[in-house]
């Protein structure tokens, strides 16, 4: 059976192309309509510049102030000229020559002795080579002398210290006094300092330490040196 219409006259054949073209055209028109802007020409006023008024404006003339030059410095005072009469004798300074000749005797200068200043070197008791020797601690090696000295000082303080003083001051419980002193190059006890809960305990501790006997000084490399020594004094106050 033959078709009634010519296939080339079928409108639906290019319908997709027509639809795409129409859609693109509508999108363009819509975008242009949205972005279109209009301006009111009558609302814009840029003003007018009157050049004649600028030409008529007077510019003030600035006057240049001339600074006068500084005054000249005062003339220098004339030097005082002393007039000396011809008959007056003027003493002249004679400079003697310091040059010597072969015949002049040379004086020999005696040797100048430079006196050495001994420095007060302090060496701690724990590291000194030869510890100070407390009376009665002459025997034994260095460690034995160190222990003997510590024991002797502890017993001496326990015997001489007035422990009843703390009770009289109203102190109770365990009391600690830190004492620091030095044994100088001659073996004397010097520089006693103490710290205690009460000033009277500090004075009592200093009094007892100053009663220590003279010792043989400590030595470092064969020379007598100062040896600092610290001693804690601890006792219990009976309630």
What does this protein structure show overall?
The structure is a single chain. The mean pLDDT is 77. The longest helix has 21 residues, at 15-35. The protein is flat, with a radius of gyration of 58 Å. The chain has a domain at 142-237: Fusion Protein Consisting Of Minor Coat Protein, Glycine Rich Linker, Tola, And A His Tag, Chain: A, Domain 2, CATH 3.30.1150. It contains five helices and five strands; from the N terminus they run ααααββαβββ. The chain has helices at 15-35, 51-56, 142-160, 164-168, 199-209; strands at 173-183, 189-195, 219-220, 223-224, 227-237. A hairpin with a 5-residue loop joins β1 and β2. The strands form two sheets. The protein has a three-stranded antiparallel β-sheet with strand order 2-1-5. Strands 3-4 form a two-stranded antiparallel ribbon. It starts with 14 loop residues before the first helix and ends with a strand. With 239 residues, it is an alpha+beta fold.
The name CATH uses for the topology of one domain is Fusion Protein Consisting Of Minor Coat Protein, Glycine Rich Linker, Tola, And A His Tag, Chain: A, Domain 2
Distance between the ends = 142 Å
Provide the β-strand percentage band.
5-15%
Oligomer state equals single chain
Low-confidence stretches: none
Largest sheet properties = 3 strands, antiparallel
Number of helices: 5
